[in-house]
Amino acid sequence: MSFKKLKYIITIAECRSISKAACELFISQPSLSSILSNMEKDLGVSLFDRSTNPISLTYAGEKYVETAKKILSLESNLKKELIDISTMKKGKITIGIPSVRGTHVLPLILPKFKKEYPGIDIHVIEGDSNYLEECLLSGKVDLVLTSLPSTDKRITCELLYEEKIMLACKKGYLNSQHLLDINSNIVNLNSLKDVDFILTKKNHRIRKLTEYVFDLFNFKPKIILETSNTATAFRLATSGIGVCFVSEMILNTTKPMNEFDLFNIENSPVKWNISISYLNSSYLSNVERSFIDFAKTVLKENAKNNSII
Predict the structure, then answer these.
(1) Alpha-carbon distance 204 to 229, whole Å?
(2) Secondary structure of the chain in HEC code, one letter for each residue
(3) Neighbours of 165 (CB within 10 A)
(4) Residues 134-183 pLDDT 10s
(5) CA distance 139 to 261
(6) Which one, of 36, 31, 161, 171, lies nearest residue 108 by Cα?
(7) pTM, full prediction
(8) Is the same domain home to 175 and 266?
(9) For residues 301 and 108, what is the distance between their CA atoms, to the nearest angstrom?
(10) pLDDT(67) > 50
């Protein structure tokens, strides 16, 4: 059984469609259908139930895909070890990163890394943190650079740097009645009950962090808009229609619509940790280890130089 055919079956299972899998694999649908039929004939079992819409795995198919993933993981680990043996002159790293964060951190890391390892190809997959974690677990990416936390025990997370989260709005949108102290930039959260909030959607980690803060103070925000993009939330807030939570990364990469104010919440500054993650079971190559070390050094220094604290 070839590794290529194992990948074919896994892709059909993930797409739940032979035609969609064929597109993703860049082969024709008739060819993929023929390969699948021949494999099922050789195995003596059906791997897919074609009577369902979309198609689904049979019990035999579930066992096949489960084992196929383990085989491909072993093959991937072996390739990484062989690359190390050949003095890291060639190789590939696939990195998962949210698109907005990639705009900020990849230009800081990749030039130095490519200078040190010119023969290493870098592939980037973008998406939200939850999607990227799924990609990591399925083996589609080697490393994921995103915010904590991850609660999956199959994943190891190494801290890169700490990032502060603040409340942003157009300059003058909030006034002294919202502050704990007229000479401070600390807001009284309960004074914001009639203030319009622009929040990211519920699947975003910054939304989970802000909901934790709301629960901590038993505060129910007046939400006027939800968006999938934190940069969009920041630009809308600085246009003067409300307030939003913003990270230091967004402040360093996104142009505001107008002059703006930044505030801390109560006396407990909100922060989160930015990490790089990989599977416990995967072989961490020397190149991947070097990439992690580069990221730690560069991003900690950048955070120190550009901190809004």
Answers:
(1) 9
(2) CCHHHHHHHHHHHHHCCHHHHHHHHCCCHHHHHHHHHHHHHHHCCCCEECCCCCCEECHHHHHHHHHHHHHHHHHHHHHHHHHHHCCCCCEEEEEEECHHHHHHHHHHHHHHHHHHCCCEEEEEEECCHHHHHHHHHHCCCCEEEEECCCCCCCEEEEEEEEEEEEEEEECCCCCHHHECCCCCCEECHHHHCCCEEEEECCCCHHHHHHHHHHHHCCCCCEEEEEECCHHHHHHHHHHHHCEEEEEHHHHHHCCCCCCEEEEEECCCCEEEEEEEEEECCCCCCHHHHHHHHHHHHHHHHHHHHCCCC
(3) 22
(4) 999 988 999 999 887 677 889 999 998 888 889 999 999 998 888 887 77
(5) 42
(6) 161
(7) 0.69
(8) yes
(9) 10
(10) yes
How many residues can be counted in the chain? Answer: 309
Q: CATH number for the domain including 33? A: 1.10.10.10
Within this chain, do residues 120 and 244 fall inside the same structural domain, yes or no?
no
- Picking from 25, 47, 71, the residue at the C-terminal end of a domain is 71
pLDDT digits (tens, 9 = 90+) for 187-238: 888 899 999 999 999 878 888 888 988 998 899 999 999 998 889 999 999 9
237 burial level (CB within 10 Å; 0-12, 13-18, 19+): buried
Identity (one letter) of the amino acid at 230?
Answer: T
Q: Which of 263, 201, 193, 199 is nearest to 221 (CA)?
A: 193
Q: pLDDT value at position 204? A: 82
Contacts (Cβ under 8 Å, ≥6 apart) of 230: 100, 200, 204, 206, 244, 246, 247, 250
Instruction: Please give the single-letter amino acid code of residue 44.
Output: G
Which CATH number belongs to the domain containing residue 293 in this structure? 3.40.190.10
